[in-house]
Amino acid sequence: MTSAGADGATWPPLRNIYDLTLKFEETVLDLAPSCLLIVLAPIAGFCYLQRPVQVRRSPLLWVKLFVATILVGVEIASLSFRAASHNLITETTIPALSVDLAAAIVLAAILYVEHRRALRASALLGLYFLVRTVFDAVKCRSFFSRPGLAPAGALAAASCGLNFLLLILQEISKRGLLIDPELQESLGEEGTAGYWKRMLFIYLNPMFIAGSQKVLKLHDLGSIGPEFSSKLLHAKLKQLLHTVGWKSKNTLLRICFEAWMWLFLLVLIPRVCSTGFSFSQPFILRRVIDALDEPELAGGERALLLCATFLSFAGATLSKMAAAHLSYRIVTRLRGALVTHISDKNSRLPQTEAKKSAAMTLMSTDIDGIADGLPQIYELVMTSIEVALGIWFLSRFVGKSCFVILAPVVASTCATYFLGGWIGSAYTAWNKSIEDRVSKTSNILGQLKAIKMFGLGPVISDYLQHLRQNEMVKSKKFRVLEAISSFPVVCAELITPVVVIAAALFWNTFDGKMSAATVFPSLSIIVLIKTPLGILLNAYPTITSMFGCFRRIQEFLQLPEREDARIILESPDMVPLDEKADPANPATWPAVEFVEAKIAPAGTEIPILRHVNFSIYPGSVTVAVGPNGAGKSLLLQSILGETSLIDGAIYIASRLIAFCGQMFWLRNVSIKQNIIGHLPYDEQLFRRVVRCCLLEEDLAALPEGENYIVGSGGCKLSGGQRQRVGLARALFARMSIIVLDDVFSSLDHKTATSILSQLCGRNGLLRELNTAVVLTSYLPECFDVADQLLVLDGKGNVKVEHNFHEASSREKLLQVMLGPAHVKSEGGTSPDSAVPRPSVEEKEKTKTEGEESGVLPEGDPSLYWLFIDPIGKIKMILWCTAMFFCSAGEMFPDIYMRLWIEHHPDDNTYFAGYAAIALGGCLLFVATCTVLFAVLIPRTALGLHEHLVKTLMHATLGYLGATDNGVINNRFSQDMSLIARRLPVSLMRTFYVFFTALIQSGVVVSGAKYMAVALPIIGLAVYFVQDFYLRTSRQMRGLDLESKSPLYTHFEETTEGLLYIRAFGWQIQTLEESFRLLDDSQKAFYYMYCIQQWLGLVLGLLITVIATILMTLVLFMRQSTSQTAVGLAFLNLIFLAQTLEQFIMAWTSLETSVGALSRLRNFMEKTPQEPDNGHLQVPENWPSLGNIELQGVTARYTTASPDLERPAALENMSLSIDGGQKVGLIGRTGRCAVYANPPHSGKSSILLTLLGFLECKGQVTIDGIDISSVPLDVLRSRIITISQDQIKLDGTVRTNLLPFELNKSWARMSEQERHEAEKRDVKLRELLVRFGIWSHLSTKGGLDAMLNGVGYSHGEMQLFCLARGILRYEDTGSKVVLIDEATSSVEEERESAAQKIMRESFPDCTILVVGHRKSSIAGVDFTVEMSKGKVAHIDQTVPSSEGWDQRD
Q: What global pTM score does this model have?
């Protein structure tokens, strides 16, 4: 029984019926939620009314409104009954019921508006219905416990049921009711799910089930909703960026916060709730421990303690996951907005700036840094609140000793701050060494064929390994500091309780006796305080890094953009018009007009071309001619707006210009897609363009024809094919101006002249389209189709010639042109790389894409041995043992405290052992981390890198040609970084948390006797959860990597093709394509975080169940436990969920890092290797004579797949060459060989056979030694090879001239060696002077100048490579020299001089020359004509005074 007076007070509860007072219930359970709904509902309604109607009326709406109407009736009935009964009426009864009625009416209105205009149920109504359901159930019990209020209890029960029914109705998806079918398709499961389906991540269950049954693909992931649309996010942030200036270095961060301010603030609500639920747990623990001392405990109080335990753990879990989920939704938005802005900005930068790797780093590393750091911001905000609240709560247990908790935290913070500066600089140094290694490795990968041909394989292997060693040396400081930085963090964890207990003992807070009721709640509060502080200490570098990431992105967005100085010709008065132009007809105005233009390369101020004046009219053909380095490409690029205009003016009729340049740019799509680009398809035009570019035969021969995928950069096509596809793209665009920069350089003479005629001849396509054509070429036939010439004299002057068709003028201009009639064979790429793979191989590639990611549904334990072997098994076991004791060191102080309280609570000397265990744990942890980071991991990193390099350098030419360089580069960049960076941290965390979870579980089970029964159940539950989770998580991480690859590939392709994209005006289409690819990437990125929150939720609810079971045993079977056992068990239970979650997350992260090991193992095991069976030790001077003999040789190119066999490149060939003879190899230009009678001749195949690249049958001997018995690296290093593929190492001119001395260090040379090196420099200088390429170096540092910064043209680089070959001959004295189109881009005059130098430099050498020009093979002793892999003719040549002939 109770009285009206007791119920009229707010507090305390009524102990006789163990219930809350009616006034308390009316105030807290009625007024609070109803008032909150009445206040927030209009705000929500106003927001909804701003949206269009998106959902149809349906029975679901009418059912909701019907139930809401009944609820209004119930509230009216409740108000009427209580007003009329006068039984137990308080001063808040009528107001509370009146507000409840108002809330019910508002609820009905907001239900209607929300149903019609919102895509899914709101959190406001979802939370309100749950709270009202629970509160009405509590009220129902209260009313039935009091006499005369049974009708009120029945009405409360009805209200409870109706609210619960509305809660269920709100969870029903409205997907099928959406008006817009496109919107319906674009929404994923989460987009239309109810609030509690979203809160409990139920919408992810189908994905988990699918992931456990099959390999997930990107299309299996549902859409994440229009709010994450990259296009919308880009537009939103762009609008804000345009309205503000860059006022400070944190402007971008501020703008991002303003863009999503309400979302940022919304995260704080569940985060605050999480704090409240967590801090309730120590008080529950104290009451339970006290209750064990009481002889009898009321049944109602036990039930309330049980409910409180359940609510505190469940509430903490749900609120924590809600906060994390909201924060990661913001992260996903930021990622979408920032990546699109980086991509957009990069497309507007000067080409030289855009090609730098900074933007790619921003899109990957810096965006990941922001994703890691942003959630920690909320910890920073909440830490101060939690610390203040925790100290206040702690003071109730330990008095003034509570303040000493700040001492270790402040000390740790200071230590972390100072270490942070050192760590930051060390991390930057490591990053720079990684960038240097990856950049130089990437440069090497693009030249592997030429490197191996020159015999540089072992040198480059050592060079790459040396780069890795330098990286490891640079990283050592960071690794040691990273291990040391764990000391203050661990101290904050372990020493803080020691300091508080010490202070409490010193001030006698415990009254001379340790008590479980005081110590364990105090320790739990200490844990609640130190945990956020520990997170903050760990988060400090992450947050600092995040600010740095924002600043770097801001600095990138502030870079000066490309300035287009061209002026659109809009009036005839702007320029002087020719007599053929009609001022009234804009179609007759000049397409291009230069007026006194001074032109410099982009980003420079020194003009290369001066006082340029000329006009180009529609329908005309203009040819730019001049020697190498005269500035022809610069002139053409100025038409595209890609140069610096120092003075004068450039007028153009349109900014849309078709372009095809010397540097190929093809995307990794089909030939058809490359030709069409972003233009609408025109079948008739497409066929004509293909016919004009002589691509019909090629398309017929390719496996998929026009749908053949060309590979990265067109690597599956020959050089000529690539150039003709690029030309076809320019033609298909049908633009008024077309710029062609040396587009015939990779074509044979017949093909080039035929294409030229079909394009620019009298009835050519470009004439027909009235297109203004500007081209540069070494093809003399260009004079026959040209209307005017632009003659560049190499001194900065440009002269316009119209009268050049007379024989005398033509001869003079041909001398100015100094260009060969045919520049290069179409086999610009190696025949190996030019051979397309058939459809079956493409399918096989698609089949293995999932394996390439290295992330499969099932783990592979054998991968760990790949990591362990370089370390050693014994050392790894010892390290694991040490890590177990580290985990034990964290748990043992609490166990020691239990024993102290149980056995000697009044003996303070036990404190020494307590402190010693904590301190020992700290020191052991730091030592263990140091050994792992600084000793063990470098061994693995170096060992795996060495194995990777060895595999790469011995890969077959077929594999290297068929494999995208980006795939190989990922092994050296991404995977090597994962092994060196993420793997050690993931390994340490996995072992540490695993051992910690084991010990914590044991402690929890020891809390009550019968809890041991639950241990197997808990273990099975955790096992099934991790198995269910990891099957999908592994794949999701793989999908995340897989979905990023197309995005990054697109970005790289865009960067490489900026010249083309801007010329064609495809910037918008390219940006939209990046939006689409980013949207795909966002799905995997977002769902990866969602499943992590699902894991936290499931484990948190599992711990809630365990806590409830433990509390049930403690409260209802009190003899099964003790105060200390409960205190210790509850203390560990508080964070067991977090430990289990950390364990599975660490394991998942470890599996991701191990995915890198999987990819490396696949690469090392499946990469076809060259059969190197040679073990013969040849003489030092071999080959000393140069006798070459081939007897019955049949040779084939190796394939990337061992199941595929290519036709013979050489068939039953026999050839004998005496020492000192010069042989010219001629034959038809090579094309892509498919599988039936390839139309290649076999010239280059002879050279590759002599170098051991082809699979041979028969015998090949040099100086009587069978080359199959000579080690391949030795063979290639003893033959002088000068190929058309140039080697440009990332180093000085000296290093590139003497690449075999690449790994020598000047600092390690003796005085004599330095003196000899200086003498050698004199020879190098003289040789470059003889070739006429020293002038570039005289003002740039001479031999110490970086080769990439010298500015050699393509032809000058060929002369440079000749100089390298001559120097190699002087070092080795080899009598065999192989030359493959080594002067194809050198004008005839300089070529003749170069041949004279080579003739003098290679005395008595056997020289094999592959050439198509007569000048290339002039003066050889005889020529060998090849056809389809066989010798067609061997002809003696006529003696000549030029070329290779040395006869008088």
A: 0.76
